[in-house]
Amino acid sequence: MGCKYGRLRKEGKYCGVLYENRLKESGYLFHICVRNYSEEGTFLEVEKDLDRIKGLGVDIIWFLPIYPIGQEKRKGILGSPYAIADYRKVNPELGTMDDFKHLVEGIRTRGMRVMLDIVYNHTSPDSWLAKNCLLYTSPSPRD
C-alpha cells in the first residue's frame, strides 16, 4: 500500500490521507482522523462528505481510533487517540454509537468498506482492558 496523493485538503485544511489500494487493481484507501476532519470533528461531518470521498475513487475508509481516550497520564488537553480507555465504545466527543453505525451504513451504501485502527498494546493505563484483562493485571513471568 503506497501513498498515492498524500495529505488531502478540504476547504484548505488537512482532512485525511489517500493511499493506493493494492489489494485490488484500482481504487484507494482513505485514512481519517475524525476529530481533525472538520471544525466539529464528528461522525456526522464525515458522513456529510461521503459522496465527495467516494468521488475520489475510494474503496475503503480507514478510521484512526474512534474510542474514548483515557485520562490517566493523558498527553496534552485532548490526549492521544491511541490511549484507548474502552474498545467497546466510541469517543463521545465524536458522536454516539448510533451516529457511528449510521456513518458505517452510509459508507456501505456507497459501495465502500470500513477499516478500524485497533492497537491493543496502545491501551490507556486507566482503561477497562488494563483493569480487567489478565495480560495487564497478572504479574510478569520475570517478576
Explain the overall architecture.
- By secondary structure, this protein is α/β, with parallel strands linked by helices.
- Helices cover 27% and strands 22% of the residues.
- The chain has six helices and five strands; from the N terminus they run βββαααβαβαα.
- The chain has helices spanning 34-37, 43-48, 50-55, 97-109, 128-132, 134-137, and strands spanning 3-10, 13-20, 28-32, 58-63, 113-116.
- A five-stranded mixed β-sheet has the order 1-2-3-4-5.
- Helix 4 (97-109) links the parallel strand 4 (58-63) and strand 5.
- The longest helix is centred in the C-terminal third of the chain and has 13 residues, at 97-109.
Q: How many beta-strand elements?
A: 5
**Could you give the order of strands across the largest sheet?**
1-2-3-4-5
Order of helices and strands: EEEHHHEHEHH
Q: Could you estimate the helical fraction of the residues in percent?
A: 25-40%
How confident overall, as mean pLDDT? 80
Shape: elongated
Largest sheet: 5 strands, mixed
Q: What percentage of amino acids are in beta strands?
A: 15-25%
Category by helix and strand content = alpha/beta
| Helix run count | 6
Radius of gyration: 17 Å
Q: Which residues sit in consecutive blocks of at least 5 with pLDDT less than 50?
A: 1-7
